[in-house]
Each structure stands twice: as structure tokens, then as C-alpha cells.
Specification:
The structure is a single chain. Helices cover 29% and strands 28% of the residues. It is globular. It has 26 helices and 55 strands.
């Protein structure tokens, strides 16, 4: 099939002129503050439970550090409340509680519990402490800050989100909050103060704001709730109480315990954080990568951007060679016995094998021509050669390849209605493309044919930078002149085996060391797209292509950005999987169910044998196709074969390809089964007659769906309703009668947090009265809902050839129809309340699942959506008979062959957070794309293209005066001139107006 290939690009943007004002230059530069300040302010807000979620009351504690370092010296405790929101009787509840109980301060001091208004709390507690250097702490801090504010406005800077006004009078500084994603937010105080000594206004310090949830994420790479974090830390957590939105005794006790729990979690995480001697303040630990970078800086490792100056063209070559992990379903919709295998810390392991740490710590790098050398390597390499550790030292190369049916990573839209995905498939291209050498080696061992090499270059580190210094990691001393990532992995394994450490400390340290090792590669490709006013000139480099264009955003490169390193790491990870595939399929004639970045589910039973599977090369006695299942011994032999590449201390890391824990139950090896639908959509299970036990099911493609009162199963690492969905799907596949759960009848809904002003503006589109109070409006960081509209085609209009989709009102464009509404768990209100279309602000109502009127919108039922989930094809592969993989395809899938016809150039690829998180970025996807000057006169607009395809060629030709050849070429994906596109666009608009008029007449709306 012919496809447009998306290639990663490196961009250089013109430097911003220095626009700093005198006020900005006067930011105070005090001496470096302590890692942990002497005082923290911990607070928590309670709200009404309607869609506005206004503050009712809150609890706070001002706490000092004791001599032991913990924050347990409570200096003040109290409540605050919004006098405009709570009733007299509710206020009396607070006052009576405060009168009858004392603050939990020092036992010899009988301090009272303060009861303050919201304004009094902000003016006398919050701001004096925040400006004075105290640490302001909460769990989900952005939400709590938005509750104590009096107004929220879009921030003035394009790169920031919210400016919170903290008093009605507006004389206090504002708090600026920018949400990076569902876990990370940045805070700063915006304002000035009068400096009597300097006799002028100076900027206030940014303040120190710590979200406990973010710190836990940085240390453990887990997105916790307060309840689950307390359970993990083995501290007293939340009370068992369902918030009512009213001020009651139970609500007061519940809120007070939340503050205790948040403070206890802070103290526990403080101990973990202090285990790491890094020069990083806790509020700056935004993610595991933050701590990795701090470790490297503590050891004196200079960031690549400060010591390496490869040309933009070299960055472009490495960027073009960058692809993410390999993920694929190889045997579809067929339940089979498997052994799940996993590479031990795959990326740190390949960093060690290739000697990339020496490159990272080098004084400088040099690019050497290596064409003849790489051609010789490819002629001689075979599977056995890849198991030689010395061979891996030769892989630090980039290769310009003329692809001709070679197995290489390909980033493209494998199906017209999907975004770009990476698949490892057969590629042919007239245009030579750059790849990292490990990917080219993968192609050779998978096909037996060396790709055609046009040119190759080698990246060589020269010398060792000065200033490197040792640091500690747990009980281990690290010398950066040795291999940092190797030591991290060995230390983690020793910590796991160290019974002298308390269990909680052993577990916490092991958690972090795993994260520290695996988060390392991402920092070398880290960019942050940020919008700019208007458009900005950009120089784009990708492989052999370089051009100048303009862009509505810039991609800010972080200090550790170095695609020369990042591309080699991920390509080497794919080489590991290619080697494993060769061992299983090529050498032993076996098969694998799926592969996912660093793991593979190998079809295997205890004694091996032949199993039924469509498309298999074996033959069953009953005539069915079959495949060979390896034995457990054969899988163990493959794992032993990979140990030739094990450069770790064998006492610490005995194997680098290990049989995963899921294969064991109660310390005994057990037979597990696997079932896969498409890439990352799979589960393991055990079947005993008619009983199915689901094990560690994937939430990919399901995790973004919202169900009221959903629970989480911590032992399986998934929501309980997802486990039930997989059990039903397995039952259907195995011919068992498993009843559908009641929630199958619910409408399919997604839940997001309002993190951007665009969403809030849409919700408030009909609430723009400037006099409307903040409490009467939807607020930032509230949740919203968005129904998943049924887009199944039910009919086609014979006159316009336009398809009609079952869930959409008849007069809307499905491509510009996305509904949102304030959050509520009351399903009845989903049908009673209006929904806003984010594209035009119009209001619509949802139709019940069993009936729909033409002007209503109908969401999928979960039942329908689960059927579609099960039918989701593996678009990257072909069916066993070589046709396109379809909804009912089962059996062994084949690699597809791609012929590259055109190329697009992209920046950072969209993070698909919505697959697992409640991140509103799904509604506003950002995928930086750059168009070269070579094709600037020729354009393609996908939305216009789809609308042209929905109409007959002759009609479009008649309406526009264009030839049928031109119309047909555009429908087939060819580019056209801008002037031609404008003619098409005008004709489409005229036709749509005519069609809308006819529909209105048909519905009897026009005369009205």
C-alpha cells in the first residue's frame, strides 16, 4: 500500500529579542534556600458537589520542622470558609467544633482552632507564608488554589494558563498556575512589592508550591489518589465517608483527616526524597526525569547542549531516525498459552552495551564517515553475531538507506481515520531515509538481506569532560567515570535482596531506582511545544531535507536534548525485540502473541506441541491450521542465550531476559494464557473449566472512559469494570456464557479536568455577564464530561453521496462536533442538561440510547463501544490471507508492505494521555507539523478532501469548473494548488448550504 510517511524533524527558531522590563530584571536574587524550608502550610478545600464546586470550607495547618526533620511541630490549625456560600447553620457547625476542640499543637499549649473567612485566611495566613518562603502544600494543589481564589482569568503569557485573583479588591498578588498535564503544574506568585531600602518596586519571589501527588509521581512513577498513596506508604489515610457538599460534623472530621493524611504523606515522601543527594528542591521534582537530570548535574555531568555543538543538520539526521518503542499484535483474537518474557531495564541495558555513557560524559563528540565499515558489518552480521557484547560497541552509527522491501520502523497513518503510528514493516521508498544502525541490523537478521546503504556516519565521543564527581545511591558510591546506568540497575537489584533494610524502605528505594534508570532516555529527546503570538520563523532539518517555514508555536529544547543519543537507545531496544523474534520464530519455528516495547508473549506450554491457529504452517489432525508452541525449557534456553549480553554483576542481575512474575503463582510456575486484539490491547488469564480469572488486563483504549463510582483493583492494576469487560470478551471468544454487567447499558462518557481557558470559555459561552460572580461560574480544574458520539454509518445520501452517522444531529458536520458539559455522576442529568459543541458553542441534548430525534445527539452505549473495542483491527498488519486486517480477522497476522509516496515533517508527537488519564489535551491535540518550501505552492486540506470524497466527481467538476481528472486526483490524496483548493472550498460551502436548506424543508424548520 502507498502511504504518506511522517518523519521526525529538528527545528531551530529565531532567538526571542530580550523583552525583559526593568521590573523583571529586579527579581530578587536571595541566597539559595534550603531544600526543605522550616515551615509548611498544608491545606485542603471542601466544596459543594454540583458542577460549580464552590468552596464551602477548608482546613489548614501551619507546621514547623522538628529537630528530626519531620514536619510535626503544628504551630497553628484552623478552618476557613466562604461566607457567601455556607449557611448560618453550617457556619455554626464550624464554630461549635472549633469551640469544643483544640488545635493539635504542642501538648502543653492549649491553642484554639481558628475560624477564618476565606479572605482572612488568604490575607493573614496564605500570602504571608507563601511570600515569606514557606512551602505551600496540598494534594492536587491546582484545584485547592482555584477554590480560594475570587476569580480566574487567562494568563497574559501565551505559555501560561491561569491567573488567579485572590481578593475581590485585587490588591494582593495573583497566583499563576500552568498545568503541563494531568500530574504536573507550575506555580508562581505574580506581583511587586515596595523595597524601602532600594526605594522602588521589585518583583515578588515565585513562592514554593508543592503538590504531594506530583512528588509521589516523581518518586514512584505512579499516579496516586490520596487514599492509595497513604495505603502504599502504610500511614493512616482518609476516613470512610462520601462527601455530601454540606458542612456537617462528619464532613469536618473528614476534611481535618485529609490534612493530617497529606502532612503524613509529605513526611514519608520527604524521607524518600532525602535518600537522594541531589541539588533539587522538592517542588521542582515534577517527574522522574527531573530527578534523573538532578543526579547527572550533581555528578558534574554537563548537559549536551552546553558542551556538544553538532550542526542542525546532524540533529536533523538523528531526529529523522527517532522512533518510539515497537508494539504490535502478531496473533489476533486467538486465546493461546503463553510465557510472558521481559528484558531487564531494556533501555539502561542497551545504553551499557553500546557504551553510550562514555558518549554522554565525553568532552566533545565527533562525526566520522563510516560507509564502508557499515556496509561490511551488514554483509557479515547474522543473529549469532548480535549476541557478541563487543559487536554492540560498533552500533553508534546512523545510516542513509535506500529502502527496498526492508523491515524498518515506519510512522504513518495505517488507516485513513487513525493518526500516525509506528509499525515495523516492509518499506520501499524512492527517497533515501536515515535510520539508526540497530534498526538496519534488525532488518538484516529478520530478512537475511542487507539494506542498500548510501552513506553511514559514526558518532564518536572524545576525551572525558572535567568536573565529574562521585555521589551516593542508596548505600552505593557512584563514580561517574564508571557506567552510571549499569550501577543503578545493579544497586536496585541488591536493594531488593537486602533483608537488612526495612520492607517499606526497600520497596520505596527499589521503586525509585527502577524509575531513575528507565527515565533516563527520555531526557535526550525532550522538547516542549509552546504557542507564540502570530507565527514564528523556523528552520527545519530532517535527514537530507532542510527548509525554512513559519509556525504558530516553538519547540523549546531542554538542556539534555540530544537526538544523537535518544535515537540510538530506542533503535537498540527494537533490535532486542528483533533478536528475540528471530530466536523464537526463525530458529525454533515458534510464534509470539504480541510484543510491547521491552516484552514479548511467546506461545509456549510446559511440554510444547501444536496448537490450532488460523494461518499457521502446521496442520492439525482435524485439518485445521496449527502453530508450534515452544516448551518452557526452550523459552528458558532463549533467555540463557541472551545472557551472553549480560554485562551486569551476575549476583545482582542473573538474567537480562526474564520470565515475568505473572507466569508464577504461589512461587510455582503456572500456565497462563494470552489474548490480544491489537497493539497494547491484550490480557493474560487462567481458565479452569468455565471459570476465567483475568490477570493484569491492559486498559489501553478503555482507560479514558468514565464510569460513575468506579473502583480500582490494586492487585490487578486495573479498574474493576475493565476486568469485567475483559472477562466478558474472553468468555465470548471461548464460547462461554458470561453475563454482561449492568454498566454495559450506560452511555459511553469521558471525564476531563478543565486545564485550559479554551474549554472554560466554551462552557461559559452563554454566561459572559461580567457581573456574574466567580462562585456562580464553572471554575478551572473542575471536571467536565464529553460523550462519545456514535459515529457508525447508517445510510448514504444518494444525491450528495454523503454518509449519515447514527449519533449526530442531521444538520451538523461530524468532524466539527464535540460536546462537553459540567461534570456530574448522576446519569439522569446527562440527559436533562444541555451540552455545548466546542466548535461553535451551540447547545444540544443527548438522546436516550433506545431512541433519537433528528436534532439530538446519541452517544455510544458501553455495550456498543466494547463491541467496537473487540473489533478494533491491527491496522499495522495484514490478515493471514494477505488481505487487510478487519474487524473479524483472527490468527497469525503478516507484516504489511509500505511504499512511501510523500513525506511530512513533524515535531514532538502527541502524547496520548487520554488513553489512561483524564487530560483535556484529547480535545485539543497538538502535533507540530512543518511544510517544506518545496511543496508550499501545493497543498492538501484533509477536511476539504473528505468533503470532496462525499460527493460525486461529476457534480464537483460541474460546480467548480475543474476537470474530473483534477477532482479524482485530489480525492486520491494528491496535492493541488492553493487557488484550486479555494475553488473547491467555495463550491463545498455552496453545496452544504443547499443541502442544509433541503434538510430544513424536510424537517419543517424553514418556514418556522
Amino acid at each position: 500500500m502507498t502511504k504518506i510517511i511522517a518523519l521526525r524533524a529538528h527545528t531551530e527558531f529565531a532567538a526571542e529579542p530580550n523583552k525583559q522590563t526593568n521590573e523583571q530584571n529586579q527579581r530578587p536574587r536571595p541566597t539559595k534556600p534550603e531544600k526543605w524550608p522550616d515551615v509548611v502550610l498544608v491545606f485542603d478545600c471542601e466544596t459543594r458537589i454540583d458542577e460549580k464546586q464552590c468552596l464551602t470550607f477548608g482546613v489548614y495547618r501551619v507546621v514547623g520542622r522538628s529537630s528530626g526533620g519531620n514536619y510535626d511541630d503544628v504551630r497553628e490549625e484552623g478552618f476557613f470558609y466562604d461566607p457567601n456560600e455556607i449557611s448560618t447553620s453550617e457556619l455554626r457547625q464550624l464554630q461549635n467544633f472549633a469551640a469544643e476542640n483544640r488545635a493539635e499543637t504542642a501538648k502543653d499549649v492549649k491553642d484554639k482552632l481558628h475560624v477564618r473567612t476565606r479572605k482572612d485566611f488568604v490575607e493573614r495566613v496564605f500570602f504571608p507564608l507563601a511570600v515569606g518562603g514557606a512551602l505551600v502544600v496540598a494534594f492536587n494543589l491546582p484545584f485547592d488554589v482555584s477554590r480560594i481564589a475570587t476569580d480566574a482569568r487567562p494568563a497574559r503569557r501565551l505559555t501560561e494558563d491561569w491567573s488567579f485573583v485572590m481578593t475581590e479588591e485585587g490588591y494582593l498578588p495573583r497566583i499563576i498556575v500552568t498545568r503541563k498535564d494531568g500530574r504536573i503544574a507550575f506555580f508562581r506568585i505574580s506581583g511587586v512589592r515596595w523595597d524601602e531600602e532600594k526605594e522602588k518596586f521589585v518583583r515578588l519571589p515565585d513562592g514554593r508550591f508543592l503538590d504531594v501527588r506530583t512528588l509521589a509521581w516523581a518518586l514512584r512513577n505512579v499516579s496516586y489518589s490520596l487514599k492509595s498513596l497513604c495505603k502504599e506508604l502504610k500511614i493512616r489515610g482518609k476516613l470512610k465517608h462520601e462527601p455530601t457538599g454540606n458542612v456537617t460534623l462528619k464532613e469536618i472530621l473528614y476534611a481535618r483527616q485529609d490534612v493530617r493524611a497529606t502532612l503524613s504523606a509529605l513526611n514519608a515522601l520527604r524521607v524518600e526524597f532525602n535518600d537522594f543527594p541531589v541539588d533539587l528542591k522538592p517542588e521542582q521534582a515534577y517527574s522522574p526525569a527531573s530527578i534523573v537530570k538532578a543526579y547527572l548535574e550533581t555528578m558534574g555531568v554537563t548537559p549536551p547542549s552546553e558542551k556538544f555543538q553538532p550542526s542542525p543538520r546532524m540533529h536533523g539526521i538523528a531526529a529523522q531516525a527517532f522512533y518510539g518503542g515497537r508494539a504490535e499484535c502478531r496473533i489476533r483474537r486467538t486465546a493461546l498459552p503463553v510465557v510472558h518474557t521481559d528484558f531487564k531495564s531494556e533501555y539502561p541495558t542497551v545504553i551499557t552495551l553500546m557504551g553510550l555513557w562514555r558518549l554522554i560524559t565525553a568532552k566533545q563528540i565527533r562525526i566520522k564517515e563510516a560507509t564502508s565499515e557499515v556496509r561490511n558489518i551488514l554483509q557479515q552480521v547474522d543473529l549469532d553475531r548480535t549476541f557478541d557484547p563487543m559487536f554492540w560497541h560498533s552500533l553508534n552509527c546512523f545510516v542513509l538507506v535506500q529502502p527496498s522491501n526492508d523491515v524498518l520502523p515506519i510512522r504513518t497513518a495505517y488507516e485513513s481515520n487513525t493518526g500516525n503510528n509506528v509499525g515495523v514493516n516492509f518499506l520501499t521508498s524512492d527517497k533515501p531515509l536515515w535510520f539508526a544502525l540497530p534498526d538496519v541490523i534488525s532488518s538484516k537478521i529478520l530478512t537475511g538481506k542487507p539494506p542498500r546503504i548510501i552513506r553511514a556516519i559514526r558518532v564518536v565521543g572524545q576525551g572525558q569532560q572535567s568536573g565529574l564527581k562521585s555521589t551516593s545511591l542508596g548505600n552505593t558510591r557512584i563514580d561517574p567515570r564508571a557506567d552510571f546506568f549499569k550501577i543503578v540497575i545493579e544497586t536496585r537489584e541488591r536493594v531488593k535482596q537486602d533483608t537488612t533494610l526495612p520492607e517499606d524502605r526497600r520497596k520505596a528505594l527499589g521503586y525509585f531506582l527502577k524509575i531513575l534508570a528507565n527515565a533516563g532516555y527520555g531526557i535526550f529527546i525532550e522538547t516542549t511545544p509552546e504557542p507564540v503570538s502570530g507565527r514564528k520563523q523556523a528552520d527545519v532539518f530532517s535527514g537530507e531535507i532542510a527548509f525554512r517555514t513559519s509556525s504558530p508555536f516553538v519547540e523549546n529544547k531542554r538542556d539534555w536534548y540530544c537526538p544523537l543519543v535518544a535515537s540510538l537507545i530506542t533503535a537498540a531496544g527494537r533490535l532486542f525485540l528483533a533478536m528475540l523474534e528471530c530466536c523464537v520464530v526463525g530458529e525454533r519455528g515458534g510464534n509470539y502473541l504480541f510484543a510491547d516495547t521491552d516484552s514479548m508473549a511467546i506461545v509456549a506450554t510446559e511440554n510444547g506441541g501444536v496448537l490450532p491457529c488460523v494461518g499457521g504452517s502446521e496442520h492439525m489432525s482435524d485439518g485445521r491450521d496449527g502453530i508450534k508452541a515452544l516448551s518452557w525449557v526452550e523459552v528458558d534456553d532463549i533467555a540463557a542465550q541472551f545472557n551472553r549480553l549480560n554485562l551486569y554483576d551476575r549476583d545482582a542481575v542473573p538474567k537480562i531476559l526474564k520470565v515475568e512474575d505473572v507466569n508464577f503463582g504461589k512461587k510455582r510456575r503456572r500456565q497462563i494464557n494470552g489474548y490480544a486484539i491489537s497493539a497494547k490491547r491484550y490480557t493474560f488469564f487462567i481458565r479452569r473449566r468455565k471459570n476465567i480469572t483475568v490477570i493484569t488486563p491492559s486498559e489501553h483504549g478503555l482507560g479514558h472512559i468514565f464510569l460513575p463510582n468506579a473502583k480500582f483493583d490494586e492487585t490487578q492494576g486495573a479498574k474493576t469494570w475493565v476486568i469485567k469487560v475483559w472477562r466478558f470478551l474472553l468468555g465470548s471468544a471461548l464460547g462461554l456464557k458470561i453475563r454482561k454487567a449492568k454498566f454495559f447499558t450506560l452511555p459511553a462518557m469521558m471525564r476531563f479536568a478543565i486545564t485550559t481557558s479554551e474549554v472554560l470559555k466554551i462552557l461559559q459561552k452563554r454566561q459572559l455577564d461580567k457581573k456574574q460572580s466567580y462562585s456562580d461560574r464553572i471554575k478551572p480544574f473542575n471536571f467536565i464530561l464529553s460523550p462519545m458520539i456514535n459515529n457508525q454509518v447508517v445510510a448514504s445520501d444518494s444525491r450528495t453521496e454523503k454518509t449519515l452517522k447514527i449519533g449526530y444531529p442531521v444538520f451538523v458536520d461530524p468532524d466539527r462536533f464535540t460536546l462537553i458539559a459540567p461534570f456530574t455522576e448522576d446519569v439522569r442529568r446527562w440527559y436533562e442538561s444541555p451540552w455545548v459543541n466546542i466548535h461553535d458553542g451551540r447547545l444540544f441534548y443527548l438522546a436516550p440510547l433506545d431512541r433519537k430525534q433528528s436534532f439530538e445527539a446519541a452517544p455510544y452505549s458501553l455495550d456498543d463501544l466494547i463491541d467496537l473495542y473487540h473489533a478494533h483491527p491491527e491496522y499495522k498488519s495484514l490478515a493471514p490471507d494477505g488481505t487487510a486486517c478487519g474487524a473479524n480477522t483472527s490468527g497469525i497476522l503478516l507484516r504489511t508492505s509500505i511504499v512511501a509516496t510523500e513525506f511530512t515533517y513533524i515535531g514532538k508527537e502527541t502524547d496520548r494521555k487520554w488513553e489512561h488519564e483524564e487530560d483535556v489535551s484529547m480535545l485539543f491535540p497538538l502535533l507540530p507539523m512543518y511544510r517544506s518550501d518545496e511543496t508550499d505552492r501545493l497543498v492538501r486540506d484533509s477536511s476539504i478532501q473528505d468533503r470532496v470524497r462525499a460527493r460525486s466527481i461529476r457534480r464537483m467538476s460541474s460546480k467548480t469548473g475543474l476537470s474530473t481528472r483534477t477532482i479524482r486526483a485530489y480525492r486520491d490524496g494528491k496535492r493541488i494548488r492553493k487557488a484550486t483548493l479555494r475553488r473547491l472550498e467555495k463550491a463545498i460551502m455552496e453545496l452544504e448550504i443547499e443541502e442544509l436548506s433541503r434538510r430544513e424543508e424536510g424537517l419543517g424548520l424553514k418556514s418556522a
